[in-house]
Structures are given as C-alpha cells and as structure tokens.
Amino acid sequence: MRGFPISRLGTSKAKLQLREMGSWSFQAEFPSLSLGISEDRRIMNPDYIFVYGTLRRDTNSEMSHLLAKHAEFVDDATYQGRLYKVDSYPGAVPSDDPNDVVQGEVYLLHQADVALPLLDQYEEFGPEFPEPNEYSRQKQSVLLKSGRFVTAWVYVYNHPTEGLELAESANFIQQPL
Prior knowledge:
By secondary structure, this protein is of the alpha+beta class.
C-alpha cells in the first residue's frame, strides 16, 4: 500500500494482537481501491525515460520543453554505458564495464502513447526512417541519484562507434564541442 495517499485508502480496520508464546499478529482490512485502468498501469508499470543529451532540462531546447509538457522530472541518474560524440549531440551504448557511466535525467511519462511517438520522431527512430535507425529505443536499468534502480526507456546509439570520439565527460552537457 506504500505510495498511495491516505485519502485514497479511506479508513482501515486494523488490530494488533498478542498471541501466546510472545508472537505478534497484525490484521488489516482495506476497502477495495477503485483506480482507473490507466492509473493502475502507471502505478504498476510506470513509463520512465532516461535522457542524456539534447532532451535534458539544462539544454533549454525546444524538445526539452516538449518533454517537460509530457513528463515529470524524477531524478538525476546514471546509465551503465559509454558516451560518444556523434556530432554536436551524444550517442550512448551499453557497456559491461561498471566504470563506464552516462549521466542524465529520468522522467516519468504521463502518457507514453502520446510522448514516445513525438520523441521517436525527434530521435529518428521507427520504420519510417532509413534502416538501421541511428538510435533504438530500449528498456534499460538506470540508477537514480536517490540510489534506486528503475527500468527506463533509453535511446541507445545504433550505428558502429568505430571512428567516433569518446566523450570527455560522462555528462554531455559539460562536454566541450
């Protein structure tokens, strides 16, 4: 029940009983919760997105503003990957080396079915773009600054990295161009 405001739960009947031999028992009755289907799905399977480049707040770009309209900032985060300078923008690829990290931000998408197609268009990901797409959108584990891991959508660079320069910083915003 953690995470639900008390007002959503109403009142509960709970009692603590001391049983023989010193063991404790706790019983509680909660009224049934009537959450909408979309709200249930969001709580049980939230759509997070990890951004590490031009979609970050500090870029003040048009697309970062669009993301802010469709999502709520959750926390700064890191992704276990290598960060490359593709041009004036970054490309992250997964890495098995725990020393390879990409710094970014995690957002909770309010309506993933609306926001993700807009972001896919920006990242040129999808069947309407030439194959192979420059990025692929993948579910990856990211570590929030708070210490909690979440599974988030990440736009992973999808072209060969040979000939690309590794970013000098895990934080592309601080990367000299």
